[in-house]
Design brief:
This protein is mainly α. The chain is built from 18 helices and no strands. Residues 1-6 and 290-319 have low confidence and may be disordered.
């Protein structure tokens, strides 16, 4: 029994997922040395679709129902196209660690949209957490701007977080019928469609960049999307939704450590404090309910789908850092 528990322990996979998603932020900084934001988005999505396409042929990816095509397209356009373009453009002027702290506000925007669109009731604790996290984001923005960061770049990253939150709301009903792998594949496919015009330019840029920039883009598609999905799937199978959500809080920490180790970028003390406030607010909002019935509802694939739908915030973040 002890050996079985060690085998299914989610902590190693949670750490791997946080590192993979956190590594996206320094990888983007490297890629921007040779690519435009649009080219990075195009090549990352092409890479993800090419890697996952065999899964569609072998039946590991479910066929998309016509009735769900419009919602899935909205998920791809907001969570893949808009999120990536805004994030990459913002990271031209903002350090990776600071960007990660600002993106951590995505669950806050998801809570707001859930209240407005899905008529969800976050409760008093959820509202307090939302306000605390937004206050932390303001501290990060002010401190980052004082340290030489661009307020325009930070605004783009906050908009990226809002775009990602919109995709959370669109994805939530889809998770009742599709797996995370299905959503990543179809979301990447729909997200790529409006960017097809930029494929020739992305190919031209690839011919003139160094191996570091090319490797960074490849890592964004393989490591930060596909491999991160694989480790995230193991987390979902071995942990409850509330435990799985801890990955979101670890991603900015991983991004900060990697950014400091690779580039020597250490955020200003006030920016670091603001990041902690953001995570505190998100944690308070996330703990507003205890999904006991969802966790104990059963086992097997159906229960796993219910667990994924119970907390769409971490699920929606899969592979899209």
């Amino acid at each position: 029994m002890a050996a079985e528990r060690r085998k299914t322990s989610p902590w190693a996979f949670m750490a791997a997922t946080a590192i993979l998603w956190g590594s996206a932020f320094p990888a983007i900084r490297v890629a921007l040395d040779g690519y435009s934001p649009t080219a990075i988005a195009v090549l990352r999505l092409v890479c993800a679709v090419a890697i996952l396409a065999p899964c569609l042929l072998t039946g590991r990816i479910s066929r998309l129902r016509r009735a769900d095509a419009l919602r899935m397209a909205g998920f791809g356009l907001t969570g893949m196209t808009a999120y990536q373009l805004l994030l990459y453009a913002g990271e031209r002027h903002v350090e990776g660690g600071t960007a990660a702290m600002l993106v951590a506000t995505s669950p806050v925007f998801a809570t707001l949209l859930g209240m407005l669109v899905l008529k969800e009731r976050p409760g008093a604790r959820g509202v307090v957490g939302l306000l605390v996290a937004l206050g932390g984001a303001l501290v990060v923005a002010v401190a980052g701007g004082a340290g030489g960061g661009s307020h325009t770049g930070m605004a783009m990253i906050v908009l990226a977080a809002a775009a990602q939150a919109t995709s959370f709301v669109l994805q939530k009903p889809l998770l009742r019928r599709y797996s995370g792998l299905d959503c990543i594949f179809y979301g990447s496919l729909f997200g790529l469609l409006p960017l097809l015009f930029a494929v020739p330019d992305a190919v031209r840029q690839s011919a003139g960049v160094g191996w570091q920039q090319g490797a960074a883009v490849g890592w964004l598609g393989l490591g930060c999307t596909v491999l991160a999905f694989c480790t995230w799937s193991r987390v979902l199978r071995a942990a409850t939704a509330s435990t799985s959500s801890l990955v979101l809080y670890a991603v900015p920490v991983a991004a900060l450590v990697l950014d400091a180790a690779l580039f020597g970028n250490v955020p200003a003390p006030m920016a670091g404090l603001g990041g902690l406030i953001v995570l505190l607010g998100v944690a308070v909002a996330a703990m507003r309910r205890t999904p006991a019935r969802r966790v104990t509802a059963g086992s097997g694939p159906a229960a796993e789908r219910r667990t994924e739908g119970a907390d769409d915030r971490p699920m929606a973040g899969a592979g899209r850092r």
